[in-house]
Amino acid sequence: MTLFSIVLLGLAMATDAFAAALGKGACMVRPRWSEALRIGVIFGVVEALTPVVGWLLGAAAARHIEAWDHWIAFGLLVGLGLHMIYKAISGNSGDDDASRSTANGGVFAVALAGLATSIDAMAVGVGLAFVEVNIAVVAVVIGLCTFTLVTLGVMAGRFLGTLIGRHAEVAGGLVLIAVGAWILHDHLGTTVA
């Protein structure tokens, strides 16, 4: 994977957390930067750890299914992308519940919301175990993208509400589909040539 595709993946993985941060910011009376930074750090750390867990699980199975690895990565990324788009369009996001539960919550509640929005990153980590990628770089990029978007999302939440959050999830889903297609194209292109 190129650095550009890793950054796109990081941004796509951060969209669920961004949507939740917008909702959290909308629930807060006047969010302070210190609160936004704290929430951003918690979400960023959780979002960075989950793809590593998924990658470890996928790496354990990788040698057994090496012939289909690119199809598995493609299927997982496209499936997650379509699921994100469906959630955003249907309104069944669940991020509203996560943001409401953390409106007055402490570190544990914020970490729980971060985990709820990062399950897709774990599945992406499983898919990444089947392609040649430095998982540490991917995890750091996903964590930094999430930290940045969540911090900004909390601060922007009281102005923008959840409307942009749904659009961000659609964009994130489209990016996941594109990254999955790129992985498939890259692998099939190198095996055919």
What order do the helices and strands follow? HHHHHHHH
Mean pLDDT equals 78
Summed up, the domain count is: 1
Radius of gyration: 16 Å
In the predicted model, the low-confidence regions spanning at least 5 consecutive residues are: 95-104
- Alpha plus pi helix count: 8
Strand content: under 5%
Task: Write up this protein.
With 193 residues, the chain is an all-alpha fold. It has one domain. Helices cover 83% and strands 0% of the residues. The chain has helices spanning 3-27, 33-62, 69-90, 95-101, 107-116, 119-128, 135-160, 163-192. Helix 2 packs parallel to helix 6 (119-128), helix 2 (33-62) packs antiparallel against helix 7 (135-160) and helix 3 (69-90) packs antiparallel against helix 6 (119-128). The radius of gyration is 16 Å and the shape is elongated.
Features:
193 residues; mainly alpha; 8 helices; 0% strand; elongated
Kindly summarize this structure in a few lines.
The chain is mainly α and 193 residues long. It is built from eight helices and no strands.
Task: Present the secondary structure layout.
Blueprint: H1 3-27, H2 33-62, H3 69-90, H4 95-101, H5 107-116, H6 119-128, H7 135-160, H8 163-192
Helix pairs in contact: 1-2, 1-4, 1-7, 1-8, 2-5, 2-6, 2-7, 3-6, 3-8, 4-5
